[in-house]
Amino acid sequence: xxxxxxxxxxxxxxxxxxxxxxxxxxxxxxxxxxxxxxxxxxxxxxxxxxxxxxxxxxxxxxxxxxxxxxxxxxxxxxxxxxxxxxxxxxxxxxxxxxxxxxxxxxxxxxxxxxxxxxxxxxxxxxxxxxxxxxxxxxxxxxxxxxxxxxxxxxxxxxxxxxxxxx
Length: 166
Hints:
Layout: E1 6-11, H1 16-29, E2 32-36, H2 45-50, E3 60-64, H3 67-74, E4 79-82, E5 88-89, E6 99-103, H4 112-122, E7 127-129, H5 141-156
Parallel strand pairs: 1-2, 1-6, 2-3, 4-6, 4-7, 5-7
Helix pairs in contact: 1-5
């Protein structure tokens, strides 16, 4: 099995539409989507159909019961932790094939203990973000994930989409 370009990690997502959009981004880019519980919505097949996620079978989605379960199952070597308050912009990160892009929940971001773990294992430069113009505070989670994933693909020299189109 080939290494996916990137791994998208959502910690405790709360809004199903954001997760659905992020799932579509994962499918479109060949990335793996990791969802770390608890989450704020139901992930059953019926709930996905109701939300119009008819492409979900194309998403390599791996659910993890907790952060610890994720670490045990995946053993990630390189993690980039995304934060609206990070000093380093994403384009200064040296993203590599198979890296993990870590995103927190919509209302509170990455929990402090997980962010501290990321820094302890990857160094302070692993905290990256997308700068926004004041008075905006941040981007919608799905928009931020898409922007960061495509920046990662740009750095990897990969085209978007199966046919090279966006």
